[in-house]
Design a protein that fits this description.
Layout (H helix, E strand, L loop, with lengths): L18 E5 H13 L3 E8 L2 E6 L10 E6 L2 E6 L16 H4 L3 E9 L6 E5 L7 E6 L1 H15 L6 H9 L1 E5 L10 H4 L11 E6 L6 E6 L2 H8 L4 E2 L2 H16 L7 H9 L6 H6 L7 H5 L6 E7 L5 E8 L9 E2 L2 E2 L4 H20 L9 H4 L7 H8 L13
Parallel strand pairs: 2-8, 8-9, 9-10
Antiparallel strand pairs: 1-11, 1-12, 2-3, 4-5, 6-7, 6-14, 10-11, 13-14, 15-16
Helix pairs in contact: 8-11
């Protein structure tokens, strides 16, 4: 597994990195400042017995003092005595719900008078710019993947591009991992190495929480200049490294991205696909919570009078039988074939398509699978002796 590295003198974008220490009250000042600038500030917040992403008014809305526990098919939230602001890792929500909405109207049309008189109206994105607070390293990697999907081709998505280019990202480095995490083996965490404006590492204290802050862009440096801070000393930096390393040491699930790709491409007829067919509900939960899945379809609606129509883009899933329907029938008729399509695309052919694995090791698909199917264990089932992908979970 990757060990945590010292804070680099330069960010991934080549901008000079500055490190500082701020208090939770300074963080609150920053969030207030962003709201005054017109940003919709989005962060993790507690709703009932779960952590969701939603609009927050300040640090008071963050899940201070709450901790999450994950296992295959299980999720639990409980109060903690640590009083850390970001002790929770990730919830079912991924940041893609704001950049790539689950449901979006593409256009509307209306007919006034004669049948030939139809007026079309395209939809413009009227949402305020977003400020994302508490973005984990795995989710930063997922956003970078979706950037390639929606902005990297010859026809970039204008709505995604606008939301993405105006977004402020305040990342949080993980200082603990949960049972379903395996980002360290995927090279996507637990420390954020780029793609952010500011990155925080929470340093718990008895009196008040502090954060080691790393700037990742000129905009991040400007944001830091707005609030009270002090230069990060060697002791604070060492403490931050130690806490981030703990998140690496906590992880016991692993995947080897390169070996897994080769294994899956050689195992398209493996009997494990029939085994998973008997367990998988084809519910699509894994694709809905996955921060990189991007499948969508369109729905056309009309009113009862036939004078107005709308076209909507909605999330879709490769577990939906209709997803593979073409003239003459379904391409993937069984649940096992649909699961094979998902995992093989995610861990193998995604790299051929976009240059990276489609999995960032966040573990959401493991936690929110109702029958506790574990993507890492499915790879092990195909290679039980670890000849290609190495040994299984660390004890």
């Amino acid at each position: 597994m990757q060990a945590d590295e010292a804070l680099a003198p330069e960010s991934a974008t080549g901008e000079l990195t500055k490190t500082a220490v701020i208090t939770s009250s300074a963080l609150d000042d920053l969030l207030t400042s962003l709201a005054k600038d017109g940003f919709s500030v989005i962060g993790p917040t507690r709703r009932g017995d779960t952590i969701v992403l939603g609009e927050i008014g300040g640090t008071r809305d963050l899940p201070d003092g709450w901790i999450d526990h994950h296992a295959p098919g299980k999720y639990r939230l409980e109060h903690s005595e640590t009083n850390r602001v970001f002790d929770c890792t990730i919830g079912a929500h991924a940041w893609k719900k704001y950049l790539f909405p689950a449901r979006r109207r593409l256009w509307s049309a209306s007919r006034n008078g004669s049948p030939a008189s139809v007026e079309f109206q395209s939809e413009e994105s009227d949402t305020p710019p977003y400020a994302f607070v508490g973005v984990r390293a795995c989710d930063l990697a997922a956003i970078a993947i979706q950037d390639r999907v929606f902005m990297g081709g010859s026809h970039p998505d204008p709505v995604y591009s606008k939301r993405r280019n105006t977004a402020v990202i305040i990342a949080v480095n993980c200082t603990r991992a949960v049972d379903s995490c395996f980002c360290a083996s995927m090279g996507t965490g637990p420390r954020a190495t780029g793609g952010f404006d500011l990155a925080l590492t929470e340093i718990p204290h008895k009196a008040r929480t502090a954060f080691v802050v790393e700037t990742g862009s000129p905009r991040g440096a400007e944001l830091l200049s707005r609030i009270a801070s002090r230069p990060a000393d060697k002791k604070s930096l060492a403490r931050a490294r130690s806490l981030r390393q703990q998140a690496v040491d906590d992880q016991h699930r692993t995947l080897d991205p390169d070996a897994t790709r080769q294994l899956l491409l050689e195992s398209l007829n493996h009997p494990e696909w029939k085994t998973v067919d008997e367990r998988c509900l084809s519910c699509g939960n894994c694709t809905m919570v996955c921060p990189t899945c991007f499948c969508s379809t369109v729905e056309d609606t009309t009113d009862l009078t036939g004078t107005a129509a709308e076209r909507w883009q909605v999330w879709d899933s490769c577990f939906n039988p209709d997803h593979s329907y073409i003239h003459g029938g379904y391409v993937r008729k069984t649940t096992g074939s649909r699961y094979r399509q998902w995992i093989t695309h995610k861990l193998a052919t995604w790299k051929d398509q976009f240059g990276t694995s489609g999995c960032v090791g966040c573990g959401r698909c493991i936690t929110w699978c109702p029958v506790a199917i574990d993507i890492t264990e499915e790879v092990r089932a195909i290679d039980p002796n670890g000849r290609k992908v190495g040994p299984g979970r660390r004890k």
